UniProtKB/TrEMBL annotation:
The keyword Protein transport does not apply. Residues 70-243 form the Tr-type G domain. It comes from Salix viminalis (Common osier). This is Translation initiation factor IF-2, chloroplastic. The chain holds residues 55 to 515 of 631 of the full protein. The lineage of its organism: Eukaryota, Viridiplantae, Streptophyta, Embryophyta, Tracheophyta. Keywords: GTP-binding, Initiation factor, Nucleotide-binding, Protein biosynthesis. One of the essential components for the initiation of protein synthesis. Protects formylmethionyl-tRNA from spontaneous hydrolysis and promotes its binding to the 30S ribosomal subunits. Also involved in the hydrolysis of GTP during the formation of the 70S ribosomal complex.
Amino acid sequence: NLTINEGEILGFLYSKGIKPDGVQTLDKDMVKMICKEHEVEVIDANPVKFEEMAKKKEILDEDDLDKLQERPPVLTIMGHVDHGKTTLLDHIRKSKVAASEAGGITQGIGAYKVMIPVDGKLQPCVFLDTPGHEAFGAMRARGARVTDIAIIVVAADDGIRPQTKEAIAHAKAAGVPIVITINKIDKDGANPERVMQELSSIGLMPEDWGGDVPMVQISALKGENIDDLLETVMLVAELQELKANPDRNAKGTVIEAGLDKSKGPVATFIVQNGTLKRGDVVVCGQAFGKVRALFDDGGKRVDEAGPSIPVQVIGLSNVPIAGDEFEVVTSLDIAREKAEKRAESLWNEHISAKAGDGKVTLSSLASAGSVGKLSGLDLHQLNIIMKVDLQGSIEAIMQALQVLPREKCHFEVPIASYRRSPGSVKSYAEKRGVEIRLYRVIYELIDDVRNAMEGLLEPVE
Ligand code: GDP
């Protein structure tokens, strides 16, 4: 039974620069603010943040609870293209990575640790460095799952754009707190107030206006106020009481993976609980193996990595997929078994997704190869359209394809980044007699391409 009438609510919204459209739903923050102004007590009927609990539960076990220690926050910078994410990350990396380590950070592993002064004491935090993946919404959604705080950059001269909204949605869905960074305040045409108004109209009320979303105005280009931003982020982190049990077998998430010419499959793990050690047996997605070597974000060999710490892992059977979860198990047999089970269930998912249409009329890659062979052309050409789910795999696959012998057959691989639904792609492909194959493991793809080039490919059932 609300003692505040509609007119008062509308008046309040107008006073905050929000133009209600009549059907707008007020979010919790807004309701709290209106109630505060009218001295009405708010009782939150749903005080437990379920997403947050679920997220923590997956990572922490019952046994961990009495051995928890603080861990550094893992942060992701998100936002619309050109709003300044890379500039901000670069600035932080250059200014905050210890001088002794700076030289080492040549080739990124997808995340790095920086030290931030808080109350005169240096505190570690970890930045996910994934702007290269920004075209891939899925990766970003996964990024939000390992992320403790989302730093969302909005350019003060441009305001909220589609990717800003998408980033906010990902962070909210993952139950991750948001710190807004209003960037480019040095520019002519910068209008931070307008950005704040836009944000409040979609339910993010600035702290300065009585809400609970911290917003820091910066110039990433000039390095202005970045210390303020980092301090704010660390304060938010402190409130989250981020903890893990370093004294147990590690588990966490793959944030990047690829194939290195000399190292073989490499993957960057973010340890979310426990401590990963050299010699541990890990399983991640369909990949498994004994950890032969660990490298930190500076490219230095390390023996172990504790909670929140990113490490590059060498020794896996094949290349996992960014977003795969990893865990340490007690033996290679168990690891192999788990990896196979995982592969099997993915395959079944794929099959059942295909089931129902039964009439696969695609000419197979093999017959494409043999048509070439029979047609007596000097150069047999195999056309492949490739769709991958993360940037890193394109490089890995292209590298692996480069080593195939080309004397007998030439192949073309246009990288397709299409946004059609899988269904429409499938029917289009069917009409054109193009076969679709799904691979979770690069080596299988390479084998099939090699066999197809030799006309030896077994058709799919
Ligand atoms: P991203 O796509 O979000 O990673 O954006 P970038 O970091 O690549 O920045 C896009 C453009 O905006 C570049 O030309 C930057 O130099 C410029 N930029 C980034 N931050 C600022 C800023 O604080 N002020 C000004 N004036 N330009 C900026």
